[in-house]
Amino acid sequence: MSNKASPQPIQFYKQHEKVYPRETKGFFQRLRNITLLVLLGIYYFTPWIMWNGRQAILFDLPARKFHIFGLTMWPQDFFFLTLLLIMAGLSLFFFTALAGRLWCGYACPQTVWTDAFIWMERLVEGSRAQQMKLTKSPWTPEKIRKRVLKQVMWVSFSLWTGFTFVGYFTPIKELASVLWTFDASFWQLFWVLFYGFATYGNAGFLREQVCQYMCPYARFQSAMFDKDTLVIAYDEARGEPRMKGKKRNENADKAGDCIDCGLCVQVCPTGIDIRNGLQYECIACAACIDVCNEVMDSVGKPHNLVQYTTEATTEGRKTKILRLRIVIYASLLGALAIGFLIALMMRSSVQMDILRDRNALYKVISGNQIENTYNLKVMNKSHVDQRYQLVIEGLPDANVEMVNDRVVKAGEIANITVQVTVPKDKLVAASQTVHLKLSELEGDSPDSITEETRFFGPSQ
Amino acid sequence: MNPLPETHAPEYELYRSIGVVVWVSFVTAAIATALFFAIFDPLVIMGQATYPLDWSRTASYSVGFFLFWVLTSATGAMVAWLLATPIRSVNHLRQAYESDDDDAEGKS
Q: Which residues are within 8 A (CB) of A417 and not within 5 positions of it... i.e. 6 or more apart?
């Protein structure tokens, strides 16, 4: 009666509804849980690993050097990071073409942290049905207790995530102690809070909306898919016509295997119905496969009404794994990986650029001595202060003098002037190719570098 | 009357656009920051700056990142807004319709 007195306004727009994914157990969910735990473990544990009395992985931005176990990378090594990023991008292409959205379902931080948040939510508020009931219920003390507890868990987890993130850039033990004594610098505190806030916002609040509306990868995945790509699909031929209840009992001979229980929709973290076909919202978490297999067990029908399959299989062809695009992605990836390893192994801890003195090609000293001057730009990429020795190859009886020889600090670029003198009668041509070899004198395994330049003299 | 399943309320569409612009520009700003500061040492830039600044490297990286983010967000927001704006002005369309009506009257 009161409803008649005040008619409800007609809703023309869909309101955003929170998705309450139902918990599933099964093969793929076990696999995912293991992957998620391993990935979270790596993230939270890595900054605490020590190596030779120093944090093993430390991107020391204030000092402009990256420590990766025994390796020290300088801004001059940015090339390696670029290569690594290109390889990461290519791997994404490769795995997407091969097995669909493995990245989304198993490894994307968005999925990993969202699952962690959902796990905490379930721990406090219970199952899907209990959560939905709690949302509708009035604010009883019990509801307040549960909501506060959930928020406390979420916020602490987010702050710990932010703290760990900053721990990759500042020695984490030092950071822990300055945070404990409220001595952290403004920017340290800022980034802990900022990253914590971003974690909370993405994994606690936005969740599947990040994948659906904000992620470009979800939209352009179709460019990497083909008919032989592994996707999660509903077997329409076997499942349809779906029927349930009384209708199913009356049409037992016509009914498909799908009993239309709707569990595949309830477990979906993005709230879609896999029976409508491949959709860009699907993050390939395989929850629908697990739950449907359980249902098929209970009604005594075979598994895999929803399964990992390819479009080719559905059409009755054999799935081809070695396609042109797979071969191209794989060989590019392989070539880059080999190149990266070789470059890393050949990476010298000293870098040298030779600039010839611009004032004169050569000078004649005391009648028969020819002198050439070179300006060396020497970069010390080792992690100790270095002294260097320079020899010239391809010029017999030459005398090498480093005019401003000095200690070059770790990570420093030094300008060193070198004078090379040689008796005139030892020169074979007016201009000849020579090699300058610069060798380190300090450290456990002194490195060296050889660069080519020219030596000029009077015409013969 | 059932709403179309894909039709969200206008304010939701606005939040969505903001989310897309902010998130995509966040990623590009992060890449720009990494590239820029891999090549330039902020302390060297400080020494050459028109206005003398006394910032640590950490502060410079942070400020640099947010400058890039503001820049990319502003570009993204402007592009999104311009693309969503009709090509022809309403006035122009109205004039076109009115002249059509005049033609029809003249013939009858």
A: A373, A374, A375, A376, A402, A403, A404
Beta strand A306-309 with A350-356 is: unpaired
Chain B residue with the nearest C-alpha to that of A272: B5
Judge whether residue A189 has pLDDT over 90. yes
Output the DSSP codes for A270-323: T---GGG---TT-----HHHHHHHHHHHHTT--S-SEEEE-HHHHTTPPPPSS-
Taken in order of first residue, the domains within chain A and their CATH numbers are 15-347 (no CATH), 350-456 (2.60.40.10)
pLDDT of residue B60: 93
* Percent of chain A clearing pLDDT 70 (strictly above): 96
Q: How confident is the model at residue A428 (pLDDT cuts 50, 70, 90)?
A: confident
Is the predicted pLDDT of residue A144 greater than 90, yes or no? yes
Q: What is the pLDDT of residue A90?
A: 92
Mutual orientation of helices A27-45 and A109-125 as an angle, nearest 10°?
Answer: 110
Q: In terms of Cα–Cα distance, which of A61, A458, A374, A73 is closest to B60?
A: A61
pTM tops 0.90, yes or no: no
Q: Which residue of B has its CA nearest to A82?
A: B35
Q: What is the mean pLDDT of residues B57-86?
A: 93
Q: Inter-chain contact B9–A15, Cβ cutoff 8 Å? A: yes
Which residues in A lie closer than 8 A to residue B80 (C-beta atoms)? none
C-alpha to C-alpha distance for A162 and A28, rounded to whole angstroms: 30
Contacts of A220 in chain B (CB under 8 A): none
Q: What is the CA radius of gyration of chain B?
A: 24
Q: Provide the 3-class DSSP secondary structure of residue A124.
A: helix
Query: How many other CB atoms are there within 10 angstroms of residue A214's CB atom?
Result: 19
Query: Between vectors from CA A284 to CA A279 and to CA A285, what angle results, nearest 5°?
Result: 135
Residues of A in contact with B57 (CB under 8 A): 61-62, 64
